[in-house]
Design goal:
- One of its GO terms (cellular component) is membrane.
- This protein is of the alpha+beta class.
- It is built from 29 helices and 16 strands.
- The strands form 5 sheets. Strands 6, 7, 8, 9, 12, 13 and 14 form a 7-stranded mixed β-sheet that branches.
- Strand 12, helix 26 and strand 13 form a beta-alpha-beta unit.
- The radius of gyration is 36 Å and the shape is elongated.
Amino acid sequence: MQPFGRHYVVVRPLFSEDSFAEQHERINRKRKTLRHHLKDYFSCDAKRAKNAALSLFPFIGWMKDYKIKEWLLGDIVSGISTGLVAVLQGLAFSLLASLPPGYGLYTAFFPAIIYFFLGTSRHLSVGAFPILSLMVGAVVTRLVPDEGPSFNITGFEGLSLEQQRVLVASSVTFLMGAFQLVMGLLQVGFIVMYLSETLVSGFTTAAAVHILVSQLRFVLGLDFPGINGPLAIIYTLVEVFSRITSTNVADLVTSIAIMALVLIVKEINDRFKSKLPVPIPIEVIMTVIACGVSYAFNFEERFDVVIVGEMVNGYESPVAPNLEVIEETAVEAFPMAIVGFAVAFSVAKVYSVKHDYTIDGNQELIAFGVSNMFGASFRSFAASTALSRTAIQESTGGKTQIAGILSAMMVLIVIVGVGFLLEPLPRSVLGALVIVNLKGMLMQFSELPFLWRNDRPDFVTWMVTFMASLFLGLDLGLAVGIGAELFTVVYRTQFPRCSVLANISGTDLYRDRKDYTSIYEPDGVKIFKIPSPIFFANIDFFRDKLVQEVGFNPMRVLKKRNKALRKIRKMLCNGELEVSDRGPVLRQPSVDTSEGSMEDLDQPIDFSDLPIQVNWNSQLPANISVPPVNIHSLILDFCAVSFIDVSALKGLKATLKEFIRIEVDVYIVSCDVYIMEKLQHCTFFDDEIKTSIFYPTLHDAMLHILETHPDHGELEKDININYEVIQRDSLTV
């Protein structure tokens, strides 16, 4: 190849796949069998043991490179800032889980300690996550409702309502962690790939609406039991509006004031984040003020405001998960495991790219699995990450999980020392803080116009996931959303946009003929592009599109030609037709209109017993008519075909034979070498379909066709471009 300005010149032979293989020897690579893979996986040496230890305990890798002078101060500031927010979010999100507020502090402490040792992200803030908390709350209120009897579960005897709920929450969290741990050990971290950004957006938006509605009873100071299950959001709104006249004005005014001030200061933080050394901790400030005002004016007695009340004092003894609860909640725990991991991994991936380090999805599953199982043993509920908390940890200078440990220490101080100071805090303040933190998720509604204009299938996925999650519940909604997403994938591959290509004048490029005006299409040549894998579900679609584009059905043409030959043979035998120098001449009209046997009409045309060669494009004798075929060559562009299954292979072979039997030359170009190997192993080739129909590029095939059919178009004469066939085997570009 020689550069020449903004042009390039290549002189090489004109290749088919056969001639290319003759001139360029391919390395015969030995592929590993399953036995070899298992042997390599279970073999052990010093290097593998070291790598396994570093993989299982990633903190060793960054701790030995820790830059104390550069990173320590940032980690300390970040840890303190994140810890204060973690305390408040732990209290607030425990309301979503239908648990006493103090247990949210356990979720902010125990999982963060374990994640320090096992997690691969250096910036993730581990703790309560509102969507997971809401999903835990749905399980808790189902098994231990506010009103009516609890489920008949062994182990509930002698426990108060709150203790039963804590046992349910910790048991379902333990099972969720077990699911995550097993998936990590089985190396299935790739499962998060099936949760597209569109699906997660629709799911989290619906969850945000659920959370918003669930907090209305705290913001308005209404007293009614929590509702779960399908259509829970409708029933909750009915309860809210039926009791709206009983609104506690003190709770409402406090909530509105808190939300307004927090939103304003958060906007200031976003707008001036480059100038502020650390974001203004407005949530902490408002919480302190609300606690002071509530205590000073005795909100609980004077205004009948529900407060946080007695906080947990220190740590409680470990508790084993209840097996009956695990049996009852297995269906809910699995989607919780998927959602918790998917959100955490997505956030971790953003910051790993930003700060140039790698994260391991399988190790993250192990880390969260062990964190949740360990935390559940100490009565915490499901942990993942909160987007706002992680953003604070990163933006305030956090470089490693040292900030996460310091954040957990801040929570520890509250648990064992100063937790009682938060007892006067109105629960409406926590509800207001939860609602304010939903802003980012609720703003995802703005994605809909973009999706509608640019990607309708993704728009459908978003809407189906949102509506299903909103009305059926988050667990069923996630399942429906995944189903809708897989349906759109199948739809895209089963009904892709096929196209007919043409040469762009003056180049060796081929594009959709509908998109360009300066194109060249040789007479009798059709180039059909297949833009997706070929499998059992779309082979019939491709065949129908191909028949539509070429303008005739090859099987119908083949049967008509064979039927015409039968009639010609019969007329010759009966003397109704004789052969002269000018071709077949009809001696007398034929009156036989019988169709004869329909068998063998799809077999190759046989002229062996005829004294003439029939030209199907000329006028045929008597009333014989055959559909016209206006092409002599068909090129199938396989550049976008990544795989082909056995069922589709049989359909493709049958289609190619139909064209070959009506004297249409078929060529396949840009076929992946591994697909070629599969074709050979599946006995795709025979006397009719040969390897010689395969060409490495579309232009190689086109030049071969123009050389084989010179009467149908000459490339240089027609479009005056600098292609020159030097010999049969070489070309210059």
